[in-house]
Amino acid sequence: MSKSNDALVAALNQRFDDLILDCYAAHDEVSVEVEPEHLIDLCRSLCNDEDFAFRQLVDLCGVDYATYGQAEWETESTSITGFSRGVSKGAYDDHKHRDYRFAVVYHLLSLQHNRRLRVRCRIHSEPPVVATVVGIWASANWYEREAFDLYGILFSGHPDLRRLLTDYGFIGHPFRKDFPLEGNVEVRYDTEKQRVIYQPVTITNRVLVPKVIRHDNRYEDVDRAQSAVNGEQSAVNSEQ
């Protein structure tokens, strides 16, 4: 951990000990965990306090932790621990104890102190609801609409919470893990009606991975094969 991050973590823990769940640095980045009821107080202080001065919201996104760390298949090199999906060691076991599915992540920037901060707000309610931060950072307006559109996360107090990217009348939220990869509807041009129409999707999603591993020469251990070649070459040399 750099000295700058070390100092920021210490300052955050000292200032917001009663508001945050955790504050830590990993991969040279500082993150803060917070519950929805303390989000606004935390964000307002992070923005207005001169010791932090995080006056820019660089990004806001939703996260769906359903099936986090799980793999869709098992092979000799890919296990159900999900390490093939790039999760950290032990993350899958930790996920079993989560009491929430959705979270909202805020990426903040302080030009005054040349610092960045990640704030993650855990959402326990169903449907997922969290307070809007548009009153603190105006740039959150479209970001929150995007998170609502793609994840179905509701932002209470938002001035105009409408879908942003999907079409009018779109059903569901396409970034949710339980949303079908092939979608629910498809569009085509109807020659009789002379217009584009919606119809139920006609394709079927398939997981194109092998179900059975056959042990043949294609899967022989390279070192073992090379050792055999070396042994044969040694025998030939000795005969000569």
Topology record:
Blueprint: H1 3-15, E1 20-26, E2 29-34, H2 36-48, E3 56-64, H3 91-95, E4 102-110, E5 115-123, E6 129-131, H4 140-151, E7 154-156, E8 185-190, E9 195-200, H5 222-239
Describe the structure.
This protein is 25% helix and 24% strand. It is built from five helices and nine strands. It has helices at 3-15, 36-48, 91-95, 140-151, 222-239, and strands spanning 20-26, 29-34, 56-64, 102-110, 115-123, 129-131, 154-156, 185-190, 195-200. Strands 1-2-5-4-3 form a five-stranded mixed beta sheet. A hairpin with a 4-residue loop joins strand 8 and strand 9 (195-200). The radius of gyration is 26 Å and the shape is flat.
